[in-house]
Amino acid sequence: MESYALLFAATLNAGTVLAIAALGLLVNEKAGVVNLGAEGMMLCAALAAFVTVVHTGSDVLGFIAGIGAAALLAAIFGVLVIWLNTNQYATGLALSLFGAGFSAFAGIRYVQEKLPERPQFAIPGLADIPLLGPALFRHHPMVYITMGLAIALIWFFYRSRSGLVLRSIGESPESAHALGYPVRWIRLGAVVAGGALCGLAGAFLIIVYTPLWVEGMVAGRGWIALALTTFATWRPARVLLGAYLFGGVTMLQFHLQGAGVEVPSQFLTMLPYLATVLVLALISRNPAWIRVNMPASLGKPFHPGS
After folding, report:
1. At what angle do helices 161-171 and 2-30 cross, to 10 degrees?
2. Measured distance CA(46)–CA(158) in Å, rounded
3. How many Cα atoms occupy the beta-carbon half-sphere of 107 within 13 Å?
4. What is the pLDDT of residue 265?
5. What domains appear along the chain, each with residue ranges and CATH number?
6. What is the pTM of this model?
């Protein structure tokens, strides 16, 4: 039973990386902007966070550096697609490729570096409960903050005036513009906020989840996070649950290997990506259902006065 508790704890950790990034991309898409650059932003954020912690020893500064790096890249992306009307999909792909190349080049000298000893976290009293303690109450605070973030976004999108305005821009930017809302600036704010969350995910990945720098260490998590928004039909709670589901699939490969299951390691490694493809294929069988839930202006440029 203890092994299952540890598997559940590992699932929460692995799912947190996906959840933070997917919630950030959800903010973008609720405003009608598709950003395919999550992978690149997460890589640059991870490198910025790692370098900062190596030189300062401060995890807090590392998180800030990761958030700032990704937010800057997202702002550049936002200016290109919102003001210069470049294609959202092509620009996002370019950002992803840039992030992968730049992080590989700039991170060469840090491959052998190590972070200071990682602190252990536990909620006093609760952490000592048999089974439940190791499974639920010995996580980094960011795991619990991510759960709170999902709840906050539910309130923001469906209960706050600002969230309703953001959603209205995602549905019909022309109508929002006619009512006097600064559509471009609100979209830019959503893009930067989404990028900042992707940066937070990259920082969490390298500071907490895998505290070392390796080229391409995000390993497709940005693409899985992007798929999660569709899988969750653009709902924050479903994004969180979907992230833990994919996190569980990711950790299952290690659990099976530890249990001595004779399955080729290559097959186990591809399980998370196979699950992503299968889920998207199943969802795509009902395009009408996707259209009902998807923001109507998603991926479409907006030209004021046209």
Report:
1. 70
2. 32
3. 25
4. 65
5. 2-120+131-293 (1.10.3470.10)
6. 0.93
